[in-house]
Amino acid sequence: MIAESVIPKGLVVILCVSIMAQGLQPAFASCPAAPKVASYFWSLPPMNPPWPARSMHGSVVFQEKWWLLGGNHDGYPDEFNDVWSTEDGTNWVQVTEHAAWTPRCGAGTAVFGGKMWIMGGSFSMTDVWSSEDGLNWSEVTPVAPWSGREFFSAVVFRDRLWVLSDLFSNDIWNTADGENWDLVTADAPWAPRSSYSAVVFQDSLWVLGGSYFDYICYDYDCSDVWCTKDGVNWTRVTEFAPWGVRRGHATAVFDNKLWLFGGEYLHNPCGRPWPEYLDDVWCTEDGAVWQQLDDAPWYARSFHTATVLKDKLWILGGRPGRDDAWPLNRAGGEGEGEGEGEGCGGACHSADRDGDGRISLSELLGMIQLYFYGDYHCDPAGEGGFSPGPGDQTCAPHDADFAPQDWFVSLGELLRIVQFFNGSGYHACAEGEDGFCPGAR
Description:
The chain is mainly beta and about 450 residues long. The protein folds into two domains: about 5-20 and about 345-440, no CATH class; about 50-325, 6 Propeller (Neuraminidase). Helix content is about 10%, strand content about 35%. It is built from three helices and 29 strands. Strand 7 and strand 8 (about 115-120) form a beta hairpin. Helix 2 (about 360-375) runs antiparallel to helix 3 (about 410-420). The longest helix has 13 residues, at about 10-20.
């Protein structure tokens, strides 16, 4: 493995800029909770979205588009009521700068009955709005029967729209039309809380983590996990999940697993509190047994959102001041985990030293070392059969050395390896400029 310390800092900066321009910075990971689990990797879109940095926003998938609704910029004075949409997670369109509903954060958002919905939010609002296009919004009711709340959850479950608790109440409501609401329970068994996450998974409604108020000092974070089949009878799956106490995390269902991303932990809640932002990623197949993935490449954050779009799991925004959108990609097919599958099928690229059909970070760093030295030579004892610097050139050249083949690795040739690294792998193909094409076969 090539140590990063051997690469000059200036070169690393140049290469990082080049890599990010190609839509890169992945980190491979796997969730080993089942005998056969797909592997995953993160990639960064080519450029940051055009919307202002924000947190405490809403995001939903509707009409095959990903929608971003409201939020704020790390503080109440900068609340938004804009609406944005994208079909691919990269190219965003501002649908409206000012929707009919007032600027807000911490609102509940959902897709229900062929419409997008936003309700409640900042300063304990109780209004409910819906839209069929993101531009034209209708106020379904100005005052819902549930108490005003913010940093709560709205979900669709059992063909109804549900509103769950906030910091000062643990009642649960649902509706068939957004206007007429039914009280499901006035006192759920878990403590009133805010900044938790709620999600539908395995035909059950789940509540995870969040913060509760003790009326003595401040609010405390928790790490319990609850689920229900009807909203009335709840089961505490675990009191202390291994991901630890937190608030402002994001959850989503992807690949038949429940995923949890980041959040924050409040230090010194009885004194002068401050948050510690988190960047960990966890997944589970049953809500009880959790597995932590490798470190994520994105900055720690809280009050972001997680959404599935076009067979990718995305996280978006968050505080402090995040204005990015990261997709988690599936690297292998069903039942093809790390070390399984066909690899490169015998037609391996010289940079793929372990022949798994992908370019790993250590293999990419090996190519960066060849690029740094300029020329290279044949060396049976070297990584991949080559070593940097002048020497024997009687063997077949490196597959990365193709434009032209001159026993030097140029920046363009290195970026070709970056392209393989950024994708889900590569495969041999006659039409490729170097005899290979991105993507696993």
